[in-house]
């Protein structure tokens, strides 16, 4: 589903080069809930930005659904992006728009008609348990509710991959638990492959089946959560 082959990514700033990724090999299979764990600065965000086509590798291949993203033209890239949903630590909702309109953003971009949008948005809000908040503004919601809106928006275009960038790091433990259970349900019911980056071991242990441990731009261990961290 997602495969990185010997991927390097360097950033050059003011004459200094930072090697953010140094030879990453990684394989996420369809149906996985794949966790990437590491300390701040390990290269996790860079890795997920490569998978979401927001960055290009300096060297190596990033394959999604069997194809190297380097071979896409701009039009193909836009189509491929619809296949990937993403949620964020700080939710990235538009504060000036109501919940309904936030969730509708991807559908508006896809030029769906009004009825279709209305039906799909209400279906998504029901799925995440926020049917009664369609007319609210993000500022009226709790953190957990905001992330549910983020999840609904990420699912709007029917992606087969959901990328989660520290999606529970701003939430308390109880809310984290309910969001992780929702991600598990999305994985199981919609057969969506989930990739999570986090610095929290508890997130990996609660829902991931596979894990990669990152340190200074490299993966130092990768495998099933049981193999990598052992049984309790
Ligand atoms: P993590 O998500 O694990 O905290 P990052 O991928 O954000 O790690 O960062 C890895 C390294 O790459 C860090 O040293 C960071 O400063 C650097 N880096 C990330 N993005 C950029 C960028 N756009 N320009 C320069 N350096 C960057
Ligand atoms: P940009 O990528 O330039 O920020 P877009 O038009 O792609 O703008 O995104 C519109 C809105 O959707 C923004 O609020 C952004 O935070 C959010 N967004 C961008 N990419 C994704 C994604 N893959 N999944 C969910 N929301 C996204």
From TrEMBL:
Keyword list, A-Z: Amino-acid transport, ATP-binding, Cell membrane, Membrane, Nucleotide-binding, Translocase, Transport
Any one GO MF annotation of this record: ATP binding
GO biological process, one term: amino acid transport
Domain called ABC transporter: residue spans: 2-232
GO cellular component annotations of the record: plasma membrane
Domain of life, per lineage: Bacteria
Entry's family note: Belongs to the ABC transporter superfamily.
Name used for this protein in its record: Methionine ABC transporter ATP-binding protein
């Amino acid at each position: 589903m997602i495969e990185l082959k010997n991927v390097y990514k360097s950033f050059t700033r003011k004459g200094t080069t930072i090697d953010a990724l140094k030879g990453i090999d990684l394989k996420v299979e369809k149906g996985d809930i794949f966790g990437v764990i590491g300390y701040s600065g390990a290269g996790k965000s860079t890795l997920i930005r490569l998978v979401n086509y927001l960055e290009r590798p300096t060297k190596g291949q990033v394959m999604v659904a069997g194809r190297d993203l380097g071979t896409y033209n701009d039009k193909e890239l836009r189509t491929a992006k619809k296949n990937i949903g993403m949620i964020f630590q700080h939710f990235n909702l538009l504060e000036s728009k109501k919940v309904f309109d936030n969730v509708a953003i991807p559908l508006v971009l896809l030029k769906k008609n009004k009825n279709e949008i209305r039906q799909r948005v209400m279906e998504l809000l029901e799925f995440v348990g926020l049917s009664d908040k369609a007319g609210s503004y993000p500022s009226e919601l709790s953190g957990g509710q905001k992330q549910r809106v983020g999840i609904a928006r990420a699912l709007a275009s029917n992606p087969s991959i959901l990328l989660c960038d520290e999606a529970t790091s701003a939430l308390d433990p109880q809310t984290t638990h309910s969001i992780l259970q929702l991600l598990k349900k999305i994985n199981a019911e919609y057969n969506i492959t989930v990739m999570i980056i986090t610095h929290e071991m508890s997130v990996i242990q609660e829902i991931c089946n596979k894990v990669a441990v990152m340190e200074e731009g490299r993966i130092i261990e990768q495998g099933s959560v049981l193999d990598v961290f052992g049984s309790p």
